[in-house]
Amino acid sequence: MLQVKVFDEAHEDDLSEAINTYLGDHPDIELFDIKYAAAIGVDKEEQLYCFSAMLIYRDKAA
Length: 62
Description:
Blueprint: E1 3-9, H1 12-25, E2 29-43, E3 46-59
Antiparallel strand pairs: 1-3, 2-3
């Protein structure tokens, strides 16, 4: 059965670190795809960034 894991971070380096940590902690997954998205919003004079990714995988241990 395919499963998904969603990551959402304010900085692209944090997103990379979160995904790499997850993959390192779950060596028994078979990765099928990664969907990536970036968004920006403005609140008064502040720019807000959102970097997200969805991993689509199968757990080979299950």
